[in-house]
Amino acid sequence: MTATPVSRRERQRLATLDEIVRASRSLLREPGGLTLRAVAQKVGMTAPALYRYVDDYRALVRLITRDIDRETAALIRAARDSQPEDDPAARIICAGIAFRRWALANRAEFALVFANPSSTAEDHAEMMADEETAVVFHEMVWQLWQKHRFPLPDPASLDPLVLEIVEDPMIPGKLDGIPEEARTLTWLLIQSWARLYGTVTLEVFGHCDPRVIESASLFRSMLAGQAELFGITDELPRLAPLVEEWLAER
Amino acid sequence: MTATPVSRRERQRLATLDEIVRASRSLLREPGGLTLRAVAQKVGMTAPALYRYVDDYRALVRLITRDIDRETAALIRAARDSQPEDDPAARIICAGIAFRRWALANRAEFALVFANPSSTAEDHAEMMADEETAVVFHEMVWQLWQKHRFPLPDPASLDPLVLEIVEDPMIPGKLDGIPEEARTLTWLLIQSWARLYGTVTLEVFGHCDPRVIESASLFRSMLAGQAELFGITDELPRLAPLVEEWLAER
DNA sequence: TCGTTCGAGTTTACAGTGTTCACTGTTTAC
DNA sequence: GTAAACAGTGAACACTGTAAACTCGAACGA
Q1: Which CATH architecture has domain A1-54?
Q2: Which pLDDT tens digit goes with each residue over B30-70?
Q3: Helix A185-205, helix A107-114: angle, nearest 10
Q4: 133-152 in A: which are within 8 Å (CB) of B?
Q5: Which of A187, A196, A202 to mutate to probe the B interface, most B CBs <10 Å?
Q6: B120–A114: do the CB atoms touch at under 8 Å?
Q7: Closest residue on chain A to B208 (Cα)
Q8: Superfamily assignment of B67-247 in CATH?
Q9: Angle at B118 between CA A100 and CA A25, to 5 degrees
Q10: Tens of pLDDT along A136-159?
């Protein structure tokens, strides 16, 4: 785990590559959009030089997509960590609200990472694998169960196709240690993520009454639905003030 | 309601405009994407001539977006009408499944209409107003209630902000005739649409285990959730075979 | 230390994009 | 029958991503 032996040149290379990513992201926000020439100018070189760092325009987009995902995941972790470690319900709520707030404030970046039609064409597996943002929520659901031990779905009651997924979940990282008897938690986890993702996407793309978004009522009711999903509705009164505080644009 | 007095020229004009839309939509499917020159060639003229019919590239996109929405709405209505008129639950289920199937089969078009970041910038109200696809579902929920008369949320129990929306819903067309005591149906309606939209969007953009999509388990469980939302879970056993039949790619 | 190699970067160029302008004919209308 | 409105063309402009040839400086092995 020592410092990797990077040559002087390689360090330089990584630095400018980082600069390219940051320039691209700032351009993504501005009108006029992301163009190679604009990126090059912002970095201080000419467009073809970018091809020393990036195979393609699409490769550049992939690069900044990953960067956005990582940064978003970090943002969500920060929100999570603002709450005590032994209160996973509070942690997941703050993380969810932070995610929503970020998405509404950065619609273009959200669309790039979470609603990108072109990325569907490529290999799906890899995309899911390093979707850090989703993984953070996965971990939190797991921690939520460790604390509250809410009843899990009976495997016998589940669709066999769901069982198959639950037996061999494609979730990276820390969830390998799920004990056998808690495997059906994965199913709740998938549903939970679907509701969060679905609600936020609806709000971001505005396919509903604008007042629903502005007042956050739909999102609030979705949060309540999550509590129901996890069978911890009795926690809701305790957490309500926290929800309001965080929804109030903190 | 007589035939509108269209001049010979105007009829021609509308015909070629329709041809332009159809050419554009066929190009949307092909790789290479939608370009003015390609459209022009397919229609048999040169690119600048398109500006006689369309203000802008973006205007063309808006045009075909509306066209897709209308066609999708028609498709959904057809699915709905395959079921008897006095069985709104069956009708809404078939419509929902048809919507999902269309979305998964036409990801690019779905993204254009239902997950278009650029359309958020423009005036929201108009977009929602002529979103025919959503309106069809709205109507069906209304008909579902007319038949089953499931209990509605108590206005007193609702968030005041939600009440405000429910009092003055921005839903066009046939829903103006909702009686005063059924106004809170609007809130269920919004939630219902959110779940359908959210689930389909998640599946289309593939931000979950691919097997979840392929097996349709998430969508199936979402349908069950809708029944729960409307308090008609007792109808589920009766409708299950219909769901399976329609999910089996008919 | 000297040559060689390699790599970052520029120049030029090409095909293709949306869009504008000046210009044809043809159709409609008075 | 003449004038205006209209559909459509051709050339041009300012862009886009991308490829090839080239230059210059830093790193490396002898």
Answers
A1: Orthogonal Bundle (1.10)
A2: 988 999 999 999 999 999 999 999 999 999 999 999 999 99
A3: 140
A4: 134
A5: A202
A6: no
A7: A128
A8: Tetracycline Repressor, domain 2 (1.10.357.10)
A9: 65
A10: 999 999 999 999 999 999 999 999
